[in-house]
Structure formats: C-alpha cells, structure tokens
C-alpha cells in the first residue's frame, strides 16, 4: 500500500538506500519518505545502525607448539554518514571481519608461549581492534569493541597444566609441612635442653641445701653438747639418715628386694662414703 501511494517508512536506528534508475540517489533517515516509483525511484534496501556482535573462533598454534582455539568477540556498527559505503562496498561484512580477525590472531599468537597468551590476551584484542579499525573504516563501519573471550587449549594440554599446577602446590605444601616439623623438633630440643638445665640447677641446689643443713646441724649440736666433735655429730646424722632410708625401703609397698651389709662395720663404711661424697660436693660448689 505504501508503494502504491509512493510512501515508505524507515524505522528507528535504520537507514534506507534510495536508488533512481538503478543508481544510488540518497540515504533515507528514519521516518516517512516519498518514493515516486513512476519517476524511476526505488528502495534498494535497509541498513541497520545498531551495534552488532560477531564471535570468531580461530584455531592457531603457540610458540611452544600448542594448538589453541581463540574466540574473539567483535562489536561493530555502520556509520550513518557513510551508509552508502557500508551498503555497497561489502557484499558480506561478517566474512570480511572474520578474515581480518583470523589474520591478526594467527600473526600474534604464534609469537607467544601458551602462558603468555593467557596473560597478554588484552594485547591481542587491541591488535585485532586496531587492524579492523583501519580496514573497516574505509567501508563505512566502526569497530566499537574487541574482546578475547576464550582461549581453549587441547584437552590433554589442559589436563597436563592442571597436573603441573597440582604438583607445584603439593611441593609447596610438603615444604611447609617439613618446615613445621623442623620447628617442632627445634622447639622440642630447646625444651628438653631447658628442662635438663633446670633439673641440673635443682639437683645442685638440693645438694647445697643438704650440705648447708648438715653444717648447721653439726655446729648447733657441737655448741649445745660440750665435748663432741663435728665428726661425731656428722656420723650420728648419717647413721640416722641411713636408718630412715632403710625404714622407707621397708615401708614401700612395691619396692624390690635390696641386699646390703648391715653390720656395725658396714654402717661405718657407709657413713664414711656418704661423708666423703658430701664434702666433695661442698668443695665443688
């Protein structure tokens, strides 16, 4: 009906290409337009000005001979002031863009190792965008954004990469565990050394206390009982301690049998040995 009355409607974000006798005449903007077909005017077609997206999957090889599939997402649109170029100069815009993407990716990725491809994907996307911008601007198209949305190595390569990463993490965990055990061993050795040191101090103080107690007992007994010597008092104390020890051995419920000489001469020998040991300990301190 619109063609019958020589009127056409152009939707928003779209332009129409008007021809006259097969030759480009003008670009019709959104709205209603008169198209007198009886004067040779005709509508050649429509061109959208909206942003379009094209996902391009390209297989290539890295510098370390790993095949990867790189997926680039290209967002582009036709320029309103160059609508005639965008409509007439390219027969298949999407194939043209795809060819440029293939060219740039297959020139950039083979210069990088696999790990570098993941790290420098923004640089690859920028190179693709720059090349497309220079090429497509001559055809009336603008490149809005270029993204590398996926880098997918072969399944065996991905499995190997995961195993390498897992092995590295296990190695770090083993080192940390070894360091922890080393610290525990060092702390345990330091604790044992400190314990033995304190035990030695305790034994030395105990011996010193025994010697001091015996000395005080000897001096006090000699002053209160005239005519006694220090040796007599010391023998008496040692004999008393000897009998106290025998009493404790006999009173213990789980003590083993102990065979020792028990004559008066044996007691004198024991007393002399104990006295010599205490005197030597006192001399050392």
Which regions contain 5 or more consecutive residues with pLDDT less than 50? none
Percent of residues in beta strands? 15-25%
Distance between the amino and carboxyl termini: 127 Å
Q: Counting H and I runs of at least 4 residues, what is the number of helices?
A: 7
Give the tally of β-strands: 8
Any overview of this molecule?
The chain has 285 residues and is α+β, with helices and mostly antiparallel strands. The chain is built from seven helices and eight strands. The strands form three sheets. The protein has a three-stranded antiparallel beta sheet with strand order 3-2-5. A three-stranded antiparallel beta sheet has the order 6-7-8. The chain has a two-stranded antiparallel ribbon with strand order 1-4. Strand 6 (52-61) and strand 7 (67-78) form a beta hairpin. The longest helix is centred in the middle third of the chain and has 70 residues, at 155-224. It is rod-shaped, with a radius of gyration of 52 Å. The termini are far apart. The model has no long low-confidence stretch (mean pLDDT 80).
Short structural summary:
This protein has 285 residues and is of the alpha+beta class.
């Amino acid at each position: 009906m619109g063609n019958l009355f020589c009127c056409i409607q152009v939707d928003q974000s779209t332009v129409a290409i008007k021809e006259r006798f097969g030759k480009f005449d003008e670009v019709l903007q959104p709205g209603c337009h008169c198209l007198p077909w009886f004067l040779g005017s005709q509508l050649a077609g429509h061109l959208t000005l909206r942003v379009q997206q094209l996902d391009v999957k390209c297989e290539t090889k890295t510098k370390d001979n790993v095949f990867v599939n790189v997926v680039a997402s290209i967002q582009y649109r036709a320029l309103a002031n160059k609508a005639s170029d965008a409509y007439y100069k390219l027969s298949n815009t999407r194939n043209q863009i795809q060819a440029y993407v293939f060219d740039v990716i297959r020139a950039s990725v083979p210069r990088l190792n696999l790990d570098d491809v993941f790290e420098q994907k923004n640089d690859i996307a920028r190179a693709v965008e720059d090349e497309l911008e220079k090429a497509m601007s001559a055809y009336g198209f603008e490149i809005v954004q270029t993204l590398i949305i996926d880098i997918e190595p072969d399944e065996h390569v991905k499995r190997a990469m995961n195993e390498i990463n897992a092995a590295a993490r296990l190695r770090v965990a083993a080192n940390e565990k070894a360091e922890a055990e080393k610290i525990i061993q060092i702390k345990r050795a330091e604790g044992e050394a400190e314990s033995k040191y304190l035990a030695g101090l305790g034994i030395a103080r105990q011996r010193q206390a025994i010697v001091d107690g015996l000395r005080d007992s000897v001096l006090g007994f000699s002053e209160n009982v005239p005519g006694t010597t220090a040796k007599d008092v010391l023998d008496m104390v040692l004999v008393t301690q000897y009998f106290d020890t025998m009493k404790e051995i006999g009173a213990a419920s789980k003590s083993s049998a102990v065979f020792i000489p028990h004559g008066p001469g044996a007691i004198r020998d024991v007393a002399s040995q104990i006295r010599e040991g205490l005197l030597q300990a006192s001399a050392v301190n």
